[in-house]
Design a protein that fits this description.
Layout lengths: L2 H17 L4 H20 L10 H21 L7 H7 L4 H6 L2 H10 L4 H10 L6 H8 L3 H21 L6
Length: about 170
């Protein structure tokens, strides 16, 4: 396995996944933790390519790293504090200035999504994972994942149409 290539190809995708929920520095730390766990699991023989793509396996690990980080950050009050925690991790004005206006608007709009919708959107971002793979990662039926995708798209479309998160 060429780990340099894995870091170059999967690393940025993992970073985008974590940025939906965490500040840039925290996202970078979580990418590193995910890659370390990925190396350990692959080298121990836990990854079986017959059970799914490498990207799906990496995002499965990332999903659990994210859950652990959220639990550690806020304790056991998962849903009650989700939006407040997400707002706390919003990028600074300097980070917004560095990002394109549309990316910033979209990131702001994702803060209104539920935790599971945000996870589904994050896993769909790079289109490397099928809905079936996302369902397996999240341990949900495929139909449920499709419903979350549909609701998330509607919420994002409405938020962007209302101008939520617009920088203008």
């Amino acid at each position: 396995m060429n780990w340099n290539e894995v870091v170059r190809t999967v690393g940025p995708k993992l970073h985008r996944f974590f940025r939906l929920r965490f500040a840039a520095a925290d996202a970078a730390d979580l990418v590193q933790e995910t890659l370390i766990r990925l190396v350990r699991k692959v080298e121990s023989g836990a990854y079986d390519p017959r059970q799914g793509s490498f990207a799906a396996y990496a995002f499965g690990i990332a999903y659990y790293v994210q859950k652990e980080a959220l639990k550690a950050r806020r304790g056991d009050n998962a849903d009650v504090e989700a939006l407040a925690d997400a707002a706390d991790s919003a990028p600074s004005p300097e980070e917004y200035a560095a990002a394109s206006a549309e990316t910033a608007r979209l990131r702001q709009a994702t803060l209104a999504l539920s935790e599971i919708e945000r996870a589904v959107v994050g896993l769909l971002l790079d289109r490397d994972l099928s809905l079936g793979e996302i369902a397996a990662i999240l341990d949900l039926p495929c139909g449920t994942v499709k419903s979350h995708v549909h609701r998330a798209k509607d919420k994002l479309r409405q938020a962007l149409a209302r101008g939520q998160g617009a920088l203008s």
